Amino acid sequence: MELEDESYDFVVVANRLPVDSVTEADGTKGWKLSPGGLVTALEPVMRSADGAWIGWPGAADTHVDPFEHDGITMVPVSLDQTEVERYYEGFSNDTLWPLYHDVIAQPSYHREWWDSYVSVNRRFADRAASLASHGAIVWVHDYQLQLVPGMLREKRPDLTIGFFNHIPFPAYGLYSQLPWRRQILTGLLGADVIGFQRTADAGNFARAVRRLFGYETRGSSIRVPLEDGAERRSRHSRTVVARAFPISIDSASFADLAARPDVVERARQIREDLGNPKTILFGVDRLDYTKGIRHRLKAYAELLQDGRLDASETTLIQVASPSRERVAAYMELRDEIEMTVGRINGDYGSIGSAPVHYLHHGYPREEMVALYLASDVMLVTALRDGMNLVAKEYVASRIDGDGVLILSEFAGASDDLRQALLINPHDIQGVKEAIVTAVEMEPRDRKRRMRALRRKVIENDVAKWSATFLEELRRASHAGTAADTPEHETTDPQETNA
Ligand SMILES: O=P(O)(O)OC[C@H]1O[C@H](O[C@H]2O[C@H](CO)[C@@H](O)[C@H](O)[C@H]2O)[C@H](O)[C@@H](O)[C@@H]1O
Ligand SMILES: O=c1ccn([C@@H]2O[C@H](COP(=O)(O)OP(=O)(O)O)[C@@H](O)[C@H]2O)c(=O)[nH]1
């Protein structure tokens, strides 16, 4: 049977397919699994479920039929060049991304970007509606597709719909800037279960729902009145669950890689190639203004300037993988970071030694693990980050029980990883003290902290994350989305601002 004709009991809808197109040496085209937070998180789940993944192949005007890759059915949705500019680079990454990350960069509001966001969300929703079997579970992901749950519920009320937001959900004072704030909430409330990274994000969402619609929220439940349509006959409201489900990683696979002799050898070689410095500090991020790369470089440069770190025995490896390169804020950030790196190396370097080893590349997982193993101190200094899987990967890879994690309290990962050296990245003096503490930490203290961190990451892995989310979703589906409830008041009527 053609894949097109099949229907699926489990459908993932995400902005990106978990594959990148590759051209082999002989010119043939193929696909390979791509790195990235969402892909890393969902790949193991999809392999074990017989499901389909609907997503964009990552390049404009790419029309590809559904195909199978590594046991996952891929269903490409194509975007034309204007949609890439307006829906992806524009509304997703120049409106929602900065707004949801506490306006670290200024969001732009353009009506034509919004129109494109609506029509692309409609395309994804239509595709999911045509592929999902009767009563299927559909799991929609992330800020690019917040309208899909509502659109899908209208077309297919038989489905159980989950939504997971991988990035923060902002406080109402910021969210309320969004000219389309009501439409986005309506879209999200089409889901049965809405997952967030942190309890604070779920709280911000519930507050926005109360302020804009006056709906009652109690604990993690939100009562959404049914206004018209067939469901009205039997019920007055449906219950939507909105709560935190902190995402994680496939911890065991990182530990396995860290035990592989070739990866261990590669870690040794990295140290040797750098001249076997006494201390290697490591940062790896998409080149994004949310990651606090500038703050990290500033703290490091000041420590070299103060003489508290010696450039002849310390190296910072900074991998900044290319991301959203056509969005102006990202281009400006790249210029700024590369200028700063040049300045630090110029000021504190010498022949044969550079205090910052800067790499503008994306690396495969094996190399990531070798880098994790090679480094003494891991720097995660995000100004705001939904979770930050890198922090968890570092811990999972340190099967030797060594290494120190410096972690921003503004990354979701800090909720779980309390034994890291927690920092406020805006407090440069605090970041400097944490770096010195990490560099000077006694082996016993390092191992004690790492042991506690590893326990957390091993216990709470990505399999547990998806199982917990899907269990909540199934519960919602068995309960039916609505109870025969009387009309109700808002928990806090003064918050209503409809
Ligand atoms: O698809 P891109 O525009 O190239 O961006 C890559 C991904 O970045 C974001 O990652 C988030 O999800 C991670 C996993 O939950 C989380 O750890 C991290 O804190 C988030 O920033 C984005 O949410 C994804 O949709 C993008 O694919
Ligand atoms: O060169 C790189 C840089 C990053 N990553 C992966 O990209 C993901 C980044 O996820 P994170 O949650 O830290 O941040 P995001 O980029 O999703 O905001 C992690 O799985 C990294 O291992 C990678 O494979 N190669």
TrEMBL record:
GO-annotated cellular components: cytosol
Q: What is its EC number?
A: 2.4.1.15
- Gene Ontology terms describing biological process: trehalose biosynthetic process
Which EC class is this protein assigned?
A: transferase
Q: What pathway or pathways are given for this protein in its record? A: Glycan biosynthesis; trehalose biosynthesis
Renumbered residue ranges of the record's region Disordered:
476-498
Q: Which Pfam families match?
A: Glyco_transf_20 (PF00982)
SUPFAM superfamilies the record matches: UDP-Glycosyltransferase/glycogen phosphorylase
Please name the InterPro entries in this protein's record: Glyco_trans_20 (IPR001830), Trehalose_OtsA (IPR012766)
Protein keywords: Glycosyltransferase, Transferase
Task: Supply the Gene3D superfamilies for this chain.
Answer: Glycogen Phosphorylase B
Recorded catalytic reaction(s): these are: D-glucose 6-phosphate + UDP-alpha-D-glucose = alpha,alpha-trehalose 6-phosphate + UDP + H(+)
A GO MF annotation of the entry reads:
alpha,alpha-trehalose-phosphate synthase (UDP-forming) activity
Entry keyword Glycosyltransferase: yes
The family note in this entry says: Belongs to the glycosyltransferase 20 family.
- What does the UniProt function comment say about this protein? Probably involved in the osmoprotection via the biosynthesis of trehalose. Catalyzes the transfer of glucose from UDP-alpha-D-glucose (UDP-Glc) to D-glucose 6-phosphate (Glc-6-P) to form trehalose-6-phosphate. Acts with retention of the anomeric configuration of the UDP-sugar donor.
Subunit structure of this entry?
A: Homotetramer.
- This protein's name: Trehalose-6-phosphate synthase
